[in-house]
């Protein structure tokens, strides 16, 4: 056992004689873990910045905008039509919803129209807002069709819908995929360091054989098994 420890000590001394090996074996794993923590740690909660252009100025339009403002993780900013392109291109807003003149009338007629959604970030960003918005509009259109053109009946049903007392409770689930990704990345980085270490130690063994240090060691009570075991421990 003492012979093995002596070989381990000697190998470590030879290995860390080069300063680059100190950086490689001691600091690189820590740097890799730190990068993984920075990449996957922290709060990943995303806020969607949505602009709204109201060209209809009707009650249903105002209520629709209020509904959007009440969505979690959505921040509403009211704009003028001339500001849409600038805000989208600059990246200040993820998307812009334009309620054109006639939007409310189309909803009352049961055929929602005159609404445009502008975005350059694709469906992955806008899908969340679109799903809730279109569901809300469909509900209002359904109420209008049920009223069958009776404005008083529609107003009563619409008010009941807006003032409904039912509540929807939501619970957030922990996203374990981030921790899994961080663990996989950290393990992969450590495996890479171990492979590099094994390659360097193999180089040390070959160098000692070339200088016949290996054979001189075997002429002592140290045998090949002890020599290899010591190098495995170092690795």
Automatic annotation (TrEMBL):
* Superkingdom assignment: Bacteria
Query: A single Gene Ontology molecular function, please?
Result: ABC-type transporter activity
| Pfam families named among the record's database cross-references | ABC2_membrane_3 (PF12698)
Q: Does the keyword Membrane apply?
A: yes
Segments traversing the membrane:
21-40, 187-207
User: Record's InterPro entries?
Assistant: ABC-2_transporter_component (IPR051449), ABC2_TM (IPR013525)
Domain ABC-2 type transporter transmembrane, by residue range, is 23-234
**What keywords tag this UniProt record?**
Cell membrane, Membrane, Transmembrane, Transmembrane helix
- Principal place where this protein is found? membrane
Tell me where it resides.
Answer: Cell membrane
* A GO cellular-component term linked to this record: plasma membrane
Q: How does the protein associate with the membrane?
A: Multi-pass membrane protein
Protein name as catalogued: ABC transporter permease
Q: Which organism is it from?
A: Neobacillus citreus
